[in-house]
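Q: Could you fold this chain for me?
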Amino acid sequence: MSRTPKDPELARRLSRRNVLGVAAGATAATLLGGATAQATGPQAAPGKGKGRPVLPPGRLGIQLYSLRDKVSTLGFAPVFAELEKYGYDEIEFAGYTQGSAGAITLAQLKRLARDHGLNPIGSHVGYYDDNNPGAYTFAQNLTKVLDEAEALGLKHIGTASGPFRYGSTVDGWKRAADDFNTYGAAARKRGMKFYQHNHAEEFSFATDKPGVRLYDVLLAETDPDLVYLEMDIYWAFCAQFRFGKRVDGTPAPFNPIDYVLKQPERYPLFHVKDGTRDDSARDGYNMTDVGDGDIDYKNFLSRVTTRTRHGRTYHHWQTEHDNPVESFAFARKSSEHLHSLREGRCGD
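A: Sure. Below is the predicted structure, expressed as structure tokens.
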């Protein structure tokens, strides 16, 4: 079950709010001896929040890249303590070190997560690095990548690298798909699922066949029992803006959620990242804290989580912001907003 946030004030707010995030306050910074940080967002009118929650119980996580500044200075322990208070259930790693906070073993990291009620659900590792043969990537160090994921008890191990190792042609992406199938087969032998996390460019068109969307090549050429997808919803919506037309200008519209609804079991993980629409911006959106933007997460979560296998919900939702103004405030606001979303009418 999804845990009630241990911060009493946060719990009170979660029971009353029904729309966008609130001013974050300085609780985390004060507790940890840091400077007071204020994050602002639109105030929502109090509401009773009637209706079924759209966020599945026990499935709210956070990509720790969003908190890399805190991890690298304070360490994992204070960060996990804050996430526990904010009501998070899961974490997704972006590395296993904690900078100036000192060394930590994988066994200690796994135990620390467990002690704070956080389930390590996945991790991002690079796909390849041709300029560094000894790099810690799937291509150069597959056994080590899987050994460490297994030591942490991860159910998923993946990459946020695009499949551009062999270029942007159809054949190049077929070769990358072969690599992914290999990693997926190796992960499956360890009881894990291999996954790829998208950015906007995955939805661009092949340079040799400009009528073919590269993401469609990836889906077609990877084995659905071996290769899974983590949709970054924000970047998928940016791609909808950037790549809604082919190179020759002919329309090629798509809706990110349609990919998920066609093959819901291929998308065990999602990145919940928000943005405000801006036609003048390169990507069509400006990234913001979850709940402060224009992406309709109430609708997205509602439609996806109704697609269950044998009546069970199996999707996991990881909040993320690439460069938050104040990372603890972002984590707090994101949890608060997503817990507040209810189907049906709110405030009746």
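A (continued): The mean pLDDT is 87.
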